[in-house]
Write a structure and sequence with these properties.
heterotetramer, A: alpha+beta, 4-stranded mixed beta sheet, 4-stranded antiparallel beta sheet, 8 strands, B: 80 residues, alpha+beta, 3 helices, 26% strand, globular
């Protein structure tokens, strides 16, 4: 089971887990990550600025392809029963879910590691861009984080 | 013909979402050099962090281009 | 937010996530692990035997205390907004969820690591015992796994 | 008085869920020795993997016991 979706709509983690594991009684472990919109950001020195809305832009076509490649790479590197990657696009507000990565396996090590791998790679390799709109109507593109590049590097073989 | 798409901050600051080139361009470096040679805002906006995808596959280094290729030009990604 | 529950009832991951994160817009990351009942087990050489039901016994009082200590230890070691640990007891069947560990934080590293830490420690330090009932009515206590002891050891300071 | 609880496989194989001792027992090792000295099935069932909790806190080594203590005796745990 491999599911990749780039969508405007929110997702339901319980429903996604039911879809991912279904009636497969060989699954003993499901690891998930959900990323949410924060109302503060860490651009520059300040961690105090309010965010009113967050707009997610992507590269249509490429995004879906890269996410599918990433899911297949995870299936190749770990012993998984299935994987689901959902990333939202469009306009979101603080506390809204942005991304879901969910992996299932017999034992927990494979599920945990592959879930973290997909998130680390997603942060550096998949063409999404966040733009924050502040309460005064001004906006700015979110800067990439140095630590994300480091996190992705550790998976290189 | 080579089709070039710009995304996110680049798209906004260059006021350009896409552009089509009918002339031959040897590779991604040559394309970037050509764009930067236009001067402001191109030379400033297309900084050293620029990323290129050719036919929707991310490139890590100089990549040859041929007729019919699609090139994406964008800043470091910030999804997730 | 710290929630620990030892319960017979199933849990709803979406509802637990809503409870854990609530309106806290400083949360950017939620990592979760769900353990499920498998219909095969790895006792001895065979991985083929069907499991009809799984009974979970625990040490009432001690279980809740050890889980609460474990949650507090995770809050101390990582920068977390909250943590939820739910473990079911009683009679379960294959595909039923057994355990949920969910952690929330600003950035994903803290959520991932603390979630894995709690699962690793839970496997070796919390007084639960699984008994499998086979289709022919016979039953056996599940053996502990050597690799679980190793997984827990790596967190020792 | 020391209250002792047995769990899981031990509880079943020893056919004993709890037992109360009115005599003084110096520590967890002395308690286990006393139980194993009963012979079958105690000597066999309480194998080298036995775990002890004193007042619901897991012990890693020999732990002194005093009047009023609660001791849990159980095999390696298998939750999660």
């Amino acid at each position: 089971m491999l599911k990749v979706s780039v969508q405007i709509e929110p997702f339901d983690v319980a429903e996604e887990q039911a879809q991912l594991t279904g009636a497969d009684a060989t699954v003993g472990a499901v690891a998930s990550f959900v990323g949410l919109v924060r109302d503060t950001n860490a651009v520059g020195q300040s961690d105090k600025t309010d965010v009113a809305t967050l707009t997610l832009e992507h590269y249509p076509g490429m995004t879906e392809q890269v996410l599918t490649d990433l899911a297949n790479e995870a299936l190749k590197r770990w012993s998984l029963n299935g994987i689901t990657i959902i990333h939202r696009i469009g306009e979101l507000k603080p506390t809204d879910p942005i991304v879901l990565v969910m992996t299932s396996s017999k034992h927990r090590g494979d599920a945990f590691d592959s879930c973290q791998y997909v998130m680390d790679r997603l942060k550096t390799d998949v063409p999404f861009w966040k733009k924050e709109v502040l309460p005064d109507g001004s906006s700015r593109w979110v800067d990439s984080r140095e630590c994300d590049a480091k996190a992705a590097e550790r998976w290189e073989q | 013909m080579i089709k070039v798409y710009f995304f996110a901050r680049y798209r906004e600051e260059l006021k350009t979402a896409e552009e089509t080139f009918s002339e031959q361009i040897s590779d991604t470096e040559a394309l970037l050099t050509m764009l930067r040679d236009r001067g402001e805002p191109w030379s400033r906006v297309l900084d050293s962090n620029v990323l290129c995808a050719v036919n929707q596959v991310m490139t890590k280094s100089l990549t040859p281009l041929k007729d019919g290729d699609e090139v994406g030009i964008f800043p470091p990604v910030t999804g997730g």
